[in-house]
Design brief:
Number of strands: 15
Structural class: mainly beta
Strand content: 25-35%
Shape: globular
Order of helices and strands: EEEEEEHHEEEEHEEEEE
Radius of gyration: 22 Å
Number of helices: 3
Strand order of the largest sheet: 1-3-6-5
């Protein structure tokens, strides 16, 4: 009767007011971005992140987003129940946490249900067309992200094993740091920093490549032929929540392994 229009899609629903917001066209598959971007994910994965092209409604339900197996069956109770959904302040990024009780061994939920993701199987994260944006407009397109599952990642992070491609002094070429395996993309953006040897921060632009395995940094000014530091925060995480010197799936009394908190590199002049 009302076609695309509804009270939820109105700029104002007060009696006598007629200002309305027209719903945008249906989303395209590439309008929604998902992280991790890797095609193969560990079965002890902790999080998905979904980036939407416009602000979304705060409330979502199981009919909006589902994790389904290769037979199309909904993996029930896959995500941690939340009183409030984990939206960014602009309501464009949604964080979905796979229930840690099922991910971590030795817990009741894990023993009862097992992990939602199972190695050697394929799954899809599906976003359904009825999901609403902040104006009450539906996405109007089903979007799915397929991936395969590999064995659980059980190793702590070891920054001392990272491979570093050091740029030339006097250039603004990218510093490239290969972390060895995909990491949580937000953790990479906030938990690795570049400074001078005396600790002065160096301004620049961070990039993530190779399925969030490679961290890059392009400085605002040219590299100096002097020692620089890569500082690693102890909260840096891979896709399974493993951190430097410690794994997520561990006994309560497991000791932390020593790890390198700073890596020194020196850009060299090309002459």
């Amino acid at each position: 009767m009302f076609a695309k229009w509804s009270c939820l899609a109105l700029a104002s629903c007060a009696f006598g007011e007629s200002a309305m917001t027209e719903c945008p066209p249906p989303v395209l598959a590439n309008d929604i971005e998902v992280f991790p971007s890797a095609e193969r994910l560990p079965e002890n994965l902790l999080r998905f992140y979904l980036y939407f092209p416009r602000p979304m409604d705060r409330d979502i339900s199981s009919v909006d987003i589902q994790l389904v197996d290769f037979e199309g069956e909904d993996e029930l109770q896959a995500f941690l129940p939340m009183r409030y959904e984990l939206w960014s302040s602009d309501r464009r990024r949604l964080t979905l946490i796979l229930d840690p009780g099922r991910v971590k061994t030795g817990l009741k939920a894990h023993e009862t249900y097992g992990r939602a993701l199972k190695a050697s199987n394929r799954f899809e994260l599906k976003v359904f067309r009825g999901m609403k944006d902040a104006n009450g407009c539906a996405l109007d397109t089903d979007v799915s992200f397929g991936f395969s599952v590999k064995a659980a990642e059980r190793d702590s992070l070891k920054p001392e094993t990272w491979s570093i491609d050091v740029p030339a002094a006097g250039s603004r070429a990218a510093l490239q740091v290969d972390l060895g395996r995909p990491h949580d993309h937000l953790s990479m953006a906030y938990r690795i920093r570049i400074s001078s040897e005396d600790g002065q921060p160096i301004a620049g632009r961070i990039g993530l490549e190779a399925e969030e395995r490679i961290w890059t940094f392009v400085p605002n000014g040219p590299w100096m032929a002097a020692p620089h530091k890569i500082s690693i925060d102890e909260r840096l995480e891979d896709l399974a929540g493993n951190r430097p010197g410690v794994v997520f799936d561990r006994a309560a009394d497991a000791p932390m392994i020593d790890w390198v908190r700073e890596i020194i590199f020196v850009p060299q002049s090309e002459n």
